[in-house]
Automatic annotation (TrEMBL), chain A:
One of its GO terms (cellular component) is plasma membrane. It comes from Caulobacter segnis (strain ATCC 21756 / DSM 7131 / JCM 7823 / NBRC 15250 / LMG 17158 / TK0059). The keyword NADP does not apply. Residues 274-303 form the 4Fe-4S ferredoxin-type domain. This is Cytochrome c oxidase accessory protein CcoG. Signal peptide: none annotated. Keywords: 4Fe-4S, Electron transport, Iron, Iron-sulfur, Membrane, Metal-binding, Transmembrane, Transmembrane helix, Transport.
From TrEMBL, chain B:
Pfam families: Cytochrom_C, Cytochrome_CBB3, FixP_N. This is Cbb3-type cytochrome c oxidase subunit. Keywords: Cell inner membrane, Cell membrane, Electron transport, Heme, Hydrogen ion transport, Ion transport, Iron, Membrane, Metal-binding, Oxidoreductase, Repeat, Respiratory chain, Transmembrane, Transmembrane helix, Transport. It comes from Caulobacter segnis (strain ATCC 21756 / DSM 7131 / JCM 7823 / NBRC 15250 / LMG 17158 / TK0059) (Mycoplana segnis). One of its GO terms (biological process) is proton transmembrane transport. Component of the cbb3-type cytochrome c oxidase. Its cofactor is heme c.
Length: 497, 289
């Protein structure tokens, strides 16, 4: 049962036992109403290694998102030339050389399960990295803050501007910011719809007004959500709306790496003048840099909190200050609860990336990943499903022959038309036929990338001696594209007429 | 459960006074925007009452300003469906039965239509699988009383059998026992003869006695060899397929009473296109002729 590390110095008992930090955050007055107005957060720009990682990820993830629909991919005529496409009307999903049919939704299920397990594993090892680095909410908020800084300046300038009375300067800065935000939001919603339709075509029809209604609705909806979430709501989404932080909180244990303030090294905190001795005091100079850079508006020195998204910006800010002070960096660092308490009590810190929880997650991830990959690779080029007639189960002919009816669903996964020859094995001397065509040989043309149903009859020779239920199979073949499916032939032997 | 409200040390937030297994519930204030969204939903619901059907009354309900009605929407969709079916029906109207059966698309359509029409109109007697029963013809095998070619089936459906339609298929087997045309022992002998016809062991003496009777009484319709006659709907007596049962008692009962089933005429009730579709459906699923 992990407990919160309370890094704060013990306080004298006050009238209500409220911590200084809680009071500082303005939550402490018990007279707080039922509803809380939002406190505007002005994150300050920070430089450092984690900030650089975040910049890189921002460019990579947004790049992937905006560019992917424009990648062209050669497929035969009549098929989309877009590498990644979710074709709802044709009910197909294209991804480079992979093409999925709706009935292969289990592969998506596999991907989703893998994503969940990967998230569990990463969270158990390194804490809420997803939240801090890869979540769209975080990435787009970061981008929006860049725009905000461009128009209004950094933290202090923004605070001054918000407090200032209305003026021309204020109006154009605010207007410019919101217009740019809206443009980005529109680009985001716009990029989204390209995944569902041929991008160049849609780009043209979108402006001529010929695009499907769903395209405009989706685009509008995502424009709104992007603008509202990344522009206006930001940390509120993570704290109040998103279930993932709660789920991820359950993944953490003593050995997960989290952004941690090393209280034993930092306390007692206090201002430090140049030339003063560091004896008998902590390294924390109470400069509040870690607070002002925090996009969630929290003070990491209060210990682990549900708002913390593990983004490491306070780590960069603190390292910067410590370097200037000539103290070792890492007063705030990615560290595990266990290691901190070890070090605090003077032992060597122990990290345990390999533990039952992570082994289990990694194993489950490997198994699900392997199964998903295997089911993707092992798909044949042809599909065959057999539906046996259930009413009547069999029909006895006047000459004593028995006839069973089957419906074959023949799928052609290739990009060329195939003529499949249908064969039936299991009943000696049985004859295949299908309505509308007489003769021994049953074959059917299946257009590229389609499923065609085919009714066939299997008739035994007259008075054949058969068991009540004979295992049998259908085989379809077109060159080297083939598939087979097991079925049974019911001869009615158990209940002779 | 309920305790005093107290202030939590770590967060500085009041608890609700609820406690489960030592875990106390904090009473954090809701964000204000959340409250506003709640107000918006209330406003939305009021607007919804005005715009959409909402409140039930004793005999009616509030209709709403937008005139939204699920009943009307379903009506619209049904009309659209009728139109769509009209196109299919047009294709069925112009094509011949053979063309319908040869063309995969038309055949698939006809099978769909046929299947649903069959379930609504024919399954009552012939069974949902079309396998019939005692006194009702099996439409799945290759035995046909009145012919199993496409045109034969179409004619049978259109005019029926003994239906009173002036063009209906018509024949009547005499009730040899009930009308005392034959003596009971002659009927017994004939029964043995019919059993023998279908290659089953029978009393040789009775068969010999019945042979002349069969020739005079039965062969006119059933043929000298008992092979039947589709012109008259006379069944083949040499095969394994029996409309009224294959055991001696059933055969004797049929000779005694001369039953003949009635099939309604569908010509006036179903459109020609529907009958075409039904014909193709039955023909395609039968042991073809």
């Amino acid at each position: 049962m992990p407990t919160l590390i309370d890094n704060r110095p013990p306080e004298p008992e006050t009238r209500t036992a409220v911590s200084a930090a809680a009071r500082a955050r303005g939550k402490g007055d018990a007279k707080g109403g039922l509803y809380k107005p939002r406190e505007q957060i002005y994150p300050k720009l920070v430089h450092g290694k984690w900030r650089n990682v975040k910049w890189a990820l921002l460019i990579i993830t947004l790049g992937i998102y905006y560019i992917t629909p424009w990648i062209r991919w050669h497929r035969p005529d009549g098929f989309p030339q877009q590498a990644a496409l979710v074709d709802f009307t044709g009910r197909r999903f294209y991804f480079f050389d992979i093409q999925l049919w709706p009935q292969e939704v289990y592969i998506f299920t596999g991907l989703l399960v893998m994503s969940a397990l990967a998230l569990f594993l990463v969270t158990a090892l390194f804490g809420r990295l997803w939240c801090g680095y890869a979540c769209p909410q975080t990435v787009w908020t970061d981008l929006y803050i860049v725009v905000e800084r461009l128009f209004e300046g950094d933290r202090n300038a923004r605070m001054r501007l918000d407090a200032a009375p209305l003026s021309f300067d204020k109006v154009w800065r605010k207007t410019g910011k919101h217009l740019t935000w809206l443009a980005i939001a529109f680009g985001t919603g716009g990029a989204w719809i390209f995944y569902f339709h041929d991008a160049p075509t849609l780009l043209r029809t979108f402006w001529t007004g010929d695009a499907p209604v769903t395209a405009y609705v989706s685009c509008g909806l995502l424009t709104c959500t992007t603008y509202i979430f990344a522009g206006w709501m930001r940390e509120q989404v993570c704290t109040y709306m998103c279930p993932w932080p709660r789920i991820q909180g359950a993944m953490l244990d003593h050995h997960s790496l989290q952004v941690t303030y090393l209280g034993y090294r930092g306390e007692p905190r206090g201002p430090h003048k140049k030339g003063q001795s560091w004896e008998g005091r902590g390294d924390c100079v109470d400069c509040r840099q870690c607070v002002v850079v925090c996009p969630m508006g929290i003070d990491i020195r209060d210990g682990a909190q549900l708002e913390c998204i593990n983004c490491g910006l306070c780590v960069d800010a603190c390292d910067d200050i410590m370097t200037k002070m000539g103290r070792p960096t890492g007063l705030i660092a990615y560290d595990s609860e266990a290691a901190v308490s070890h070090r605090g009590s003077g032992c060597k810190p122990r990290y345990k990336p390999v533990r039952s929880r992570t082994i289990y997650y990694a194993l489950a991830l490997g198994i699900v990943g392997g199964l998903t990959l295997w089911s993707l690779i092992a798909r044949p080029d042809a599909d065959l499903h057999v539906i046996r007639d259930r009413n009547p189960v069999f029909v006895r002919m006047h000459d004593g022959a028995v006839r069973d009816g089957y419906t074959l669903k023949i799928g052609n996964r290739t990009f060329v038309e195939q003529r499949f020859d249908v064969a039936f094995e299991g009943v000696p001397g049985a004859r295949l036929s299908h309505p509308g065509a007489q003769g021994e040989h049953v074959s059917i043309v299946v257009p590229a990338d389609q499923v065609v149903p085919l009714r066939v009859f299997v008739t035994t020779p007259p008075n054949a001696e058969l068991d009540a239920s004979v295992p049998a199979r259908f085989i379809i073949r077109s060159g080297d594209v083939q598939a087979e499916a097991k079925t049974v032939f019911l001869s009615g032997a158990a209940n002779p007429q | 459960m309920a305790h005093e409200r107290e202030t939590d040390h770590a967060t500085g937030v009041e608890t609700t006074g609820h406690e489960w297994d030592g875990i106390k519930e904090l009473d954090n204030p809701l964000p204000r925007w959340w409250l506003w969204i709640w107000y918006v939903t209330i406003a939305f619901s009021i607007a919804y009452w005005v715009a959409m059907p909402a409140w039930p009354g004793l005999h009616s309900y509030t209709k709403g300003m937008l005139g939204q009605s699920d009943r009307a929407n379903v009506g619209k969709e049904l009309t659209a469906l009728e139109l769509q079916r009209g196109q299919g029906a047009a294709a069925l109207r112009t094509a011949s039965l053979e063309q319908i059966e040869k063309d995969p698309k038309l055949q698939a359509y006809a099978q769909q239509v046929g299947q649903s029409v069959f379930g609504d109109n024919c399954a009552t007697c012939h069974g949902i699988g079309g396998t019939g029963g005692k006194g009702y013809a099996n439409l799945r095998d290759d035995v046909w009383l009145w012919g199993g070619k496409l045109e034969d089936i179409q004619y049978t459906i259109t005019h029926g059998i003994r239906s009173g339609d002036e063009n209906a298929r018509m024949s009547q087997m005499p009730a040899y026992g009930r009308d005392e045309l034959l003596k009971p022992e002659q009927i017994d002998d004939l029964t043995e003869y019919v059993v023998k016809l279908s290659n089953r062991p029978a009393d040789a003496g009775a068969v010999a006695r019945a042979a002349p009777i069969f020739e005079t009484q039965c062969s006119a319709c059933h043929g000298l060899e008992g092979k039947g006659n589709q012109e008259l709907g006379a069944p083949n007596l040499t095969d394994a397929d029996w409309l009224y049962g294959s055991d001696r008692a059933s055969i004797r009962g049929q000779i005694y009473a001369g039953n003949g089933g009635v099939m309604p005429t569908w010509g006036g009730r179903l459109s020609p296109e529907t009958i075409k579709a039904l014909t193709v459906y039955i023909h395609a699923n039968a042991g073809g002729q």
